[in-house]
From TrEMBL:
Residues 69-253 form the ABC transmembrane type-1 domain. CDD domains: TM_PBP2. It is a multi-pass membrane protein. It is found in: Cell membrane. PANTHER family: ABC TRANSPORTER PERMEASE PROTEIN (PTHR30151:SF16), ALKANE SULFONATE ABC TRANSPORTER-RELATED, MEMBRANE SUBUNIT (PTHR30151). It comes from Actinomadura macrotermitis. This is Putative aliphatic sulfonates transport permease protein SsuC. InterPro entries: MetI-like (IPR000515), MetI-like_sf (IPR035906). The gene is ssuC_3.
């Protein structure tokens, strides 16, 4: 009961803080009367007019919402899914091989150090503008947290667990599924969570170049036409999406790794 009350009070405190910040923003923006910094009320109105004033049959989404959200989210989740699968698979292979880890370590550190946006000029030259360019940019940028966390998770598997599994004849794919993956899962999920945030950032960056649809294009168009309320609406929308993604992922992670949290409580 005490834990539930503490969580409820913490949630209420966060809501009050958010309301206070929004109120301060509203007052400051109205006092400044600067077109480049519209108040939240004007931003919300612009978001409603552009994206959320559609018919009930379309969940109140406008045609512009489908044009902006559809391509952006498709690119984001496609790139994130590809990077997640590739990162986990390669991480398992490299993490279980000391030779591969020693040989590839410098290459991995070099690759992760290259900022993904700097590759966009090269990708424009070798790839078609649009989905191919955007998904490739996202994949390259978000694979590193998944890959490196998976390698670290696999290497940190308790050797006693591996030896015990060997004694009981648990080898190969069965050992991977029953011992290695469960032990490495917390670090793998940590990498997936970080990479999802990176995917949202790279989604916008990749849409600023060579794209005709998407939230990033909406931001650029609004800025060029001096519709600052719509531009800020896009920024706020991205922030809301990031919070929603993090919340949903946290719920999934909590459900999947419930056994791990229970184990820590029992051994703590």
């Amino acid at each position: 009961m005490t834990a539930k009350l503490t969580r409820a009070l913490a949630a209420a405190g966060r809501l009050w803080l958010l309301a206070l910040l929004v109120g301060a923003w509203e007052l400051a923006a109205r006092s400044a009367a600067d077109d480049f910094f519209p108040p939240p009320s004007k931003i919300v109105k612009a978001m409603h007019e552009v994206w959320f004033s559609g018919p009930a049959g379309q969940a109140f989404l406008t045609d512009e919402a489908f044009d902006d959200f559809g391509p952006s989210l498709a690119h984001l989740f496609t790139g994130w899914a590809i990077a997640s699968v590739a990162g986990v698979v390669l991480g398992l292979l490299i993490g279980r091989s000391a030779i591969a880890g020693a040989v590839l370590e410098p290459l991995l550190q070099f690759g992760r150090s290259i900022p993904p946006p700097t590759l966009i000029p090269f990708l424009i030259a070798v790839l078609e503008l649009g989905t191919e360019l955007q998904v490739t940019t996202i994949v390259y940028g978000v694979i590193w947290p998944v890959l490196l966390n998976t390698i670290d998770g696999v290497r940190s598997v308790d050797r006693l667990q591996l030896e015990t599994a060997k004694v009981f004849g648990i080898t190969g794919a069965l050992r991977l599924r029953r011992v290695i993956l469960p032990s490495a899962a917390p670090k793998i999920f940590a990498g997936l969570r970080v990479s999802l945030g990176f995917a949202l950032i790279l989604m916008v960056i990749s849409e600023l170049v060579g794209s005709t649809t998407g939230i990033g294009v909406r931001l650029t168009t609004a800025q060029q036409s001096f519709h600052m309320d719509q531009m800020w609406g896009g920024i706020v929308l991205l922030g809301v999406l990031g919070c929603l993604f993090n919340l949903v992922f946290h719920l999934v992670e909590h459900r999947v790794l419930a056994w791990h949290a229970g184990l820590r409580r029992n051994t703590g």
